[in-house]
Amino acid sequence: MVSPKLRQLAIYSVLAALILAFCVVMLGAYTRLKDAGLGCPDWPGCYGFLSVPKSEQAVAQANQAFPNAPLEQAKAWPEMIHRYAAMTLGLLIVFITILSIANRKHPGHPHKLALTLLGLLIFQALLGKWTVTMKLYPPIVMGHLLGGFAIVSVLYLLCLRLTQAMQPLRDLRAAPLKNAAAVGLGLLIIQIALGGWTSSNYAALVCAQLPICEHPWWSLLNFREAFSFYPAVDNFQYAPHLSVNAKITIQVLHRFGAMITASWLGWLGWRLLRQANTPRYRNLARLLLLILTLQISLGISNIIFQLPLFTAVAHNAVAALLLLVLITLNYGLNKKR
User: Fold this and answer.
1) Rounded to whole angstroms, how far apart are CA atoms 251 and 257?
2) Is residue 161 domain-shared with residue 183, that is, in the same domain?
3) Active site residue 56
4) Do 156 and 213 fall into the same domain?
5) Which of 2, 326, 8 is nearest to 181 (CA)?
6) Which residues pair with 46 in a beta bridge?
7) Of 116, 144, 165, which closes a domain?
8) Are residues 64 and 161 in the same domain?
9) Where are the alpha helices (DSSP H) in 236-334?
10) CB–CB of 310/259 below 8 Å?
């Protein structure tokens, strides 16, 4: 029989990892928005050191080793703090996997989900390395963002499974919205990916007007260049390989995606609020509508105020919260009774 204390330790570890993973994703967004993704041009250290070089001798040695990428303390520190947090999260996930294997005989313990999490961690670490070594290659940067959201999502599912926070609850009026909730989750994931593509290609500020872009935006679209995966450049920082028209195309797609996703999720929240019989699903509907409204407000603020750092990072954070609400809804509607 598995020790209850061991299982309780697994629950606390997953909760701690979930909070840390959320922070790591936000630190990644902050690092990206500060243009600090190449603050340390090597990996996993920084200019050959375990920390950011500080002494005059260490700085001189760093600049000599990387003459094309002189050390900038203001960019190196966000990158290294992000790496330290990510490494701590990695160790915690390894610990969770070990606990899950030890708990595998416990009825209903999701050890397979923990193994999936470990696989995601390994792939995410590789993406983190390639982000630096491939000089911010946009598909890798976008994949790294999605990997962070995926780790947060799997940790959240582990929390739900371990804590039994969503016990089976029959709601005949909410059940028909199961497919609509799944579509909403899919649309949100696509929209997060579009946001990652926009950010990794430095297209966030190319359109200053609402709701779409400056007139005549439709005549400027260039889809082929906007999704060119093999541009011949050595460094992708500031997207030197893209024309303004390509960036406009990316931004326009992101905005259309936002409109479609917001419309669907708004309709889903409204239907769920009107149809559900149980407080659980009505509360989820209210939370979905509240977070969706906040996310729309942050998106508009990013455009009006030209991407202020706090608002841009908050836009990522609220996207993650929106994702967790939809996972909760889908988990509840699809869980076997």
Assistant:
1) 10
2) no
3) no
4) no
5) 326
6) 49
7) 165
8) yes
9) 244-275, 279-304, 309-334
10) no
Domain that holds residue 268: 168-337
Q: What angle do CA 38, 26, 245 make, to 5 degrees?
A: 60
Rounded to the nearest 10°, the torsion over CA 274, 278, 283, 288 is: -60
The reply to whether 98 and 173 lie within a common domain is no
Both tokens of 221, joined, read: 């679209």
**Co-location of 176 and 151 in the same domain:** no
Mean pLDDT per 10-residue run, the chain (337 residues)? 73 95 96 93 92 93 92 94 96 93 74 90 96 94 97 95 77 84 97 96 94 93 91 88 96 97 98 90 95 97 95 97 96 76
Distance separating alpha carbons of residues 33 and 76, to the nearest angstrom: 13
pLDDT at residue 78 in the model: 95
Q: Which of 56, 79, 214, 225 is flagged as catalytic?
A: 79
Residues 150 and 199 in one domain: no
- pLDDT reported for residue 94: 95
Q: How far is CA 64 from CA 47, 52, 61, 74, in A?
A: 10, 15, 5, 19
Residues 18 and 122 in one domain: yes
Report the alpha-carbon distance of residue 254 to residue 238 in Å, rounded.
18
Residue 140: alpha-carbon gap to chain centroid: 13
Query: Same structural domain for residues 301 and 325?
Result: yes
- Rounded CA-CA distance 114/97 in Å is 5
Residue ranges with strand state E in the chain:
none
Tokens of 234: 């050595």
For residue 279 the two structure tokens come to: 């407080």
Cα(28)–Cα(192) distance, integer angstroms:
14
Count structural domains, the chain.
Answer: 2
Contacts of 30 (CB under 8 A, 6+ apart): 78, 82, 309, 313
Coil, strand or helix: which one is 46? strand
Decide which of 118, 147, 165 is a domain's last residue: 165
Which pLDDT belongs to residue 107?
A: 66
